[in-house]
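DM from R.C. (forwarded with permission)

"hey, sorry to bug you on a friday — could you get me a structure for this? deadline for the figure draft is monday and I only need the backbone to look sensible"
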Amino acid sequence: MPTLKEVEFYLMGLWLLFRKDAAGFTYLDLSDRGALRSFWAIAWALPAILVSFIWWQMLFVGTLPEGVGVGGLFYFRLVMVEAMNWVLPVILVGVLCWMIGIGEKFASIVVAANWLSLPVSYSYAVLVLVMMLIPALSGLIALLWFLLMLTLIAVLFRILRMIIGDHILTVATVTMVLLVPSMLIAEMLERYLGVYPG
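My reply, with the result:
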């Protein structure tokens, strides 16, 4: 598992790439091994993921009859959804890279996307915590969540542009493949597994 210092290096690399500084590449392990190790971002994101699970459970229980709760199976199903959110984009991007002939960029894209998910997870967790503690701010939190999504799109686009090059259509396509399908599949899977509140 990467140490905290390594994670700081990776995030600094992403920050430099966002600023269009090619020195950011030296902070990242863009090899196949680095791509595999980047999935440790899931372990580093666990506290943030747990916060979102607790909030989701609160929403779900709120739709149930009085006195009815949820058990371990509920959380297991949420883990399945979360795992799909991390794995599905990688599979789709792998297929896309193979189809358009940029397979050599695949490992770099995986590294960037996985480690970028770490600050995004914690930013989302902060919004969830505020929502849980101060429900009256739900309207503001919804706006901040929307701004967070726009920021993620912009940051990911800039980083991918550094990795892939100035092929704007390709960069935009990879960005959307990394973000959109997982959002759609997540809701479908939540409904199918019976963990969608509503």
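R.C.: lifesaver. Residues 59 and 197 are 6 Å apart (CA to CA).
me: no worries. The mean pLDDT is 90.
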